[in-house]
Amino acid sequence: MIVMEPVLEPSVPGEILLRASNLRAEYEAASGGIVAVDDVSLSIRDGEVLGVAGESGCGKSTLGAVLSLTARPPLYVLGGELEIAGRKLSFDPDHAPPRLWRGSVVSLLPQGAMNSISPTIRIGDFAVDIIRAHEPGVSRKEAIDRAAERLEQLGLPARALSSYPHQLSGGMKQRVVTVLSTLLNPRLLIADEPTSALDVSTQKVMIELLIELLDRRLVGSVIFVTHDLPVLRMIAHRIAIMYAGRIAEIGETEEIINRARHPYTGALLASVLVPEPQIRRRRITGISGAPPSLADPPPGCRFHPRCNLATDVCRTTQPPQVGDWHQYAACWWAQDHQGEAVVSYL
Amino acid sequence: MNENMNKPNDDDIVFAASGLTKTFGRSEKAIRAVDDVSFAMRRGEIITVVGESGSGKSTLARMILRLLPITSGTMALNGTDVTRLRGRGLQEYWRQVQAVFQDPFSAFNQFFSVRRLLHRSGKLLRHADVDLDSRMRAALEQVGMHPAEVLDKYPHELSGGQRQRIMIARALMMEPKLLIADEATSMLDASLRATILNVLFDLRADADLSVLFITHDIGQACYLSDRVLVMQHGKLVENGPTEDVIFNPKHDYTQRLLADVPRLHDVG
Questions:
Q1: CA of B6 to nearest chain A CA: how many angstroms apart?
Q2: With an 8 Å Cβ cutoff, are B260 and A200 in contact?
Q3: Residues A68-97: b if buried by 16+ CB within 10 A, e if exposed
Q4: Residue A274 domain-assigned?
Q5: Residue pLDDT, tens place only, A85-95
Q6: What pTM did the predictor assign?
Q7: What is the CATH number of the domain that holds A96?
């Protein structure tokens, strides 16, 4: 297989917080390996929110697991490098990543996090566990005080710590878990579908909390994984669109939404249902077909079987990344139509 | 509130609810989960109920389905009071009012093929003189599936979108008058969501089916429905044609709800 060179970025010190290169991760299955993250490279600036979007099964949550160092069997990280806030890590299937990075350097807010706290312990006990895992000498009282102070600083009630999870509403649980997962001031927070189970009003409050965490420098950067593009428009500086384990397109949020260059991005955007007058006037057909099986992905561009603009080269050869590290589309069409948006062609 | 309501003589009205109320608990601890809700549905109409979590949308759906006892109020199907139906009458009501729920992954028995699943649902039709097999095939075709391809498949061989279409086909086999879809697309990808909504949309072309769609997603309500009902704390706070409710909301709560909806483009 061809390993793509990561697109080069300007190496201005202090600007780039995270640099991930050539990440590959595989699920072990009876029928053989399923490569769910295939040669993904990306960089994130300090203070940036990067949205990661795509259909179910495109590898976006797997990418989150790899970056948060929480990959567990049957998921294996086959290779790649991670450089974050000056520290380097080479992935190697035989060696586990440093345990103490989790929570303090990278932290994962997993999908359905609000239902992942043990229902039999108080939320405060959970906070104590988190702090003591990293600083064993801290007393219970001090740990609770620190958690209480953090909650109040962010405008949440400290009494949540003496509650059991079922005593809080869904939106409150999600916010409290977010605060707990950032107690150790991680440089990178990976939030996997943090708003998907919430209704619009609680979604908005959740997003405001993430913005506040960034503003107060309690987290360095955020990777926001979701299938909801309108939500990303509220918070993300850049959006990466994943398809079949690879990044199809990445770029500034407004560029992706208004001037997408990858046909897949265009198709995804066309199937978004928002309460805007134009959606009542036309029939939205969705994207025909289904994403390919990652056990046996199609050759060339992985989107070509569903792409209206596919040509012969798309069927045989992996597309080039057209653009720079900060903004590119992995697409032959984009290569031939530099600077054009795909919308008018679909 | 709305002039269209409470007109039992209107021939077009399939379903009418009047003062529906559901109380959980007793005395001062009582919670009115659904509070004095009245509305009417016309033949072939698609009505969406929107509101935030806990507003009573799903409780309303379960009352209409007669899965929850009704504290007070009445409801009528084709002019016949169905609030207190029992026995054979309730069975016939359940044939005419069908539902599709949120989770297409837990609605299937993993060990049953699609054919067996649909066949079991046919029990409700045992008193009618119907050819179950042809009814099954017709229903699958109505939701855009090829019976030969799916009948012998097991749930794990089907995607979420396919499963949800089979659930709709299962409901259609009963030839219902009213289909209740409670968050039926919430667990699907955006790219599949539209295809399921299109299936619901096209079913009204077969005239006799009305759809009550329940969602917290205003975008889907906007795409699909003829009319939108907005619920807050169990009460119906707004009820009107989609264009009016979504692009020119009257009630404070609807205005706030719409202001929170993330959009792809700035308005105005």
A1: 29
A2: yes
A3: bbbbeeebbbbbbebbbeeeebebeeeeeb
A4: yes
A5: 888 999 887 77
A6: 0.88
A7: 3.40.50.300
